[in-house]
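Researcher: Structure prediction, please.
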Amino acid sequence: QVQLVESGGGLVQPGGSLRLSCAASATIFNSHTMAWYRQVPGKQRDLVARITTGGATNYADSVKDRFTISRVSAKNTVYLQMNSLNPEDTAVYYCAAERVFAYQSTYWGQGTQVTVSS
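Model: Predicted structure follows.
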């Protein structure tokens, strides 16, 4: 059973920072694009940031220049550094291991709540 273990969510004041972590098995981590999505109640799950096995990244326009996604192979972990947080960033954040080839599957973490409020 594939597991993506997320951590790092919580409550932060506007303008603050948080770092989310997502640990995966080596097999999954080394063969999948890793990504963070977020979802608020009643809305679809949206891509926040994505990083390929080669290190290429892309971001949602709403988080560019504030969030940074990175992956550390030695730890099989992907990180999302979130700076200058605002209330609109409040959501459940999900880690995903996205399939690269058709024979693969996409896997999801359990989600971690991020709340930005004073």
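Model: The helical segments are 26-29.
Researcher: Thanks, that helps.
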